[in-house]
Amino acid sequence: MRQVIALLVMGTLLSFAHADIVTHHLYTPTSLPSEQGWTFASSGLDEADVFTLGDGVLIMDTMGSGYSGLPFVYYTYSVDADEAFSATFRVRARVIASEALPHAYPPGFHFTGWVPSWGYRYLFGLDEQDLSLRNLTILDLDTSQWHDYVLVTEGYHPDGEATLLVDGVEVAFDESMEDGAINNLFAFGDVGFSANAHVEIAEIEITTFTDTPVAVQATTLSAIKALFAN
């Protein structure tokens, strides 16, 4: 009976995944992101001062770079979103160290993105103990361990929807906490705001889709496994 249920669940979810892929980009740390289509942005620090490669990972280290003047250093990746309606943005990372002044906004490492034009900008951040949205903790987490952070976005501002998953499990957050809008863009790095971090990144993946609903495979696998829990 459980096998039948599992097959039904898989059939339903596979029928849900009809969205055509518009663009796909996979960053692996064989070179710096600027050599793989990303745009480097900084308020003064050079790319080599912050980002290096080592042991198969991209290392971002802004520890000790100061707090004044809201220094920032990050990468952006633009997509051609003429046909795209939804996207997944996956970051596999771990936090080695972080520092911040009281009430830092947000932590020293963040990621965000949206497609198509003028979607919400949610600034998800990581420090050593938690995952946050802006300056509000949304998940207590040992970020020193490797985790997959997946942001799924769909639709146009102001009616678009966003879902965040950590290792395939959805993390609830207040969708009213958007911080402006973002235009066919994905970003990660240190956006300043009185915080710094030392982070290792193993992989970043961006996939955009047409306007058919996007199935999140990690959640699918968890749901199927739950059928056999007992």
3D architecture notes:
- This protein is mainly β and 230 residues long.
- Helices cover 13% and strands 44% of the residues.
- Strand 3 and strand 4 form a beta hairpin.
- Helix 1 (2-16) packs antiparallel against helix 3 (217-227).
- The two termini are 13 Å apart.
- Mean pLDDT is 82; it is low at 1-16 and 218-230.
Short synopsis of the structure:
The chain has three helices and 17 strands. 13% of the residues lie in helices and 44% in strands. It is globular, with a radius of gyration of 18 Å.
Mean of pLDDT: 82
The proportion of strand residues reads: 35-45%
Provide the succession of SSEs. HEEHEEEEEEEEEEEEEEEH
CA-atom Rg in angstroms:
18 Å
Largest sheet, in brief, is: 8 strands, antiparallel
Number of helices: 3
Count of distinct strands: 17
CA(first)-CA(last) distance: 13 Å
> What structural class do helix, strand and pairing data support?
mainly beta
Helix content: 10-25%
Oligomer: single chain
Extract low-pLDDT stretches. 1-16, 218-230
Q: What coarse outline follows from CA principal-axis ratios? A: globular
